[in-house]
Amino acid sequence: MSRIGRKPINIPAGVDVKLDAGEITVKGPKGSLTQKIHKNMTVKVEGNEILVTRPNDEKENRALHGLTRSLIHNMVVGVTEGFKKELDVNGVGYRVQKQGKDLVMNLGYSHQVVMSEIDGITIECPNPNKIVILGPDKQKVGQYAAQVREKRPPEPYKGKGIKYVDEVIRRKEGKAGKGSK
């Protein structure tokens, strides 16, 4: 039995959960999220809890059980607290700034890299070397953070580039100097 799938999801005050045919909508103070539910999974709202059940112990259903429960739990957390990804920008002359709804990055290229906010995502730049991406949808926040990081991933010799705050970059030693044996 799935340990994650069996856990009930608590619905905090101020969150509205609506079940339609094969779809769940969660509304809260940070926004509204909708997710399709696989036809094999059964989702019930009992009191202030959401329960996810599966019809049998087939391999596909066991996998979907925990997945469905995690997706719904992330929706509830997203509309109440929201999700956040923080990125650091390291390198001489590398800096970021927010201009209106655009993120403008100087990353050592001959041009500035500009990325626009997408709906459901907000970007903050508390200082020129930090980017904070906020939003209620965990998948959108993570995807947008990955796209920002992709513009200049950290390199292993000097550590220059855009990295997640909690990311550890494996550093490499440079070329051995002349005369070293």
From TrEMBL:
GO terms for biological process: cytoplasmic translation. InterPro entries: Ribosomal_uL6-like, Ribosomal_uL6-like_a/b-dom_sf, Ribosomal_uL6_a/b-dom, Ribosomal_uL6_bac-type, Ribosomal_uL6_CS. It holds the Pfam family Ribosomal_L6. It comes from the Bacteria. GO terms for cellular component: cytosolic large ribosomal subunit. One of its GO terms (molecular function) is rRNA binding. PROSITE patterns: RIBOSOMAL_L6_1. Keywords: Ribonucleoprotein, Ribosomal protein, RNA-binding, rRNA-binding. Residues 11-82, 91-164 form the Large ribosomal subunit protein uL6 alpha-beta domain. This protein binds to the 23S rRNA, and is important in its secondary structure. It is located near the subunit interface in the base of the L7/L12 stalk, and near the tRNA binding site of the peptidyltransferase center. Belongs to the universal ribosomal protein uL6 family. Part of the 50S ribosomal subunit. This is Large ribosomal subunit protein uL6. The gene is rplF.
